[in-house]
User: What shape does this take?
Amino acid sequence: MAELYVKPGAPPEPGSAAPAPPPPPPALGPPPPGPLGPAPRAERGRPSPAADPEEECGLPAEAVLAPLREALAACRPAVQKQVCDDIARRLTVLGDAWAQGKLSAPVRKRMSLLVQELQQQHWEAADEIHRSLMVDHVNEVSQWLVGVKRLIAESRSLPAAEPAAATDGSTEAEPGQEDP
Assistant: This one.
């Protein structure tokens, strides 16, 4: 049995078939370049390859915030001041996050759709968009989406009225009017 034992580093005996030494361990050092985790967000001004350029170029925050503020103003007479103030504070947080570029393109796009549904008084659709935002983007929206949810609920409970804005947003003219 002693002949099977070979001291480490000893030359092999002539005529014996020594096994090949194992390959050296992989070199330790910095990881190879490339993403190992979730893909980073595209930098401002440089759209990610998978993003729609129209989404990435950005919708102005005011296009979403103005209708939300109008809905809040419509609710103020019928809703407690404290509730309205909380909604207003959360809308401010939304505006700040939007202005600082902290909202991803999908969140901005869905908020635009939510506002359109809210303006058309499609409460169920607006609520569904709200729920999808909360499920899919909770880290981005948790600070302000509660206010949007409350605004949807309070707007829904108001007496029925005509939609707050034009449904297609293209013109302010009444259906029977024509441009000169």
Notes: The chain has seven helices and no strands. The two ends are 108 Å apart (CA to CA). The CA atoms of residues 10 and 107 lie 66 Å apart. The longest helix spans residues 81-99.
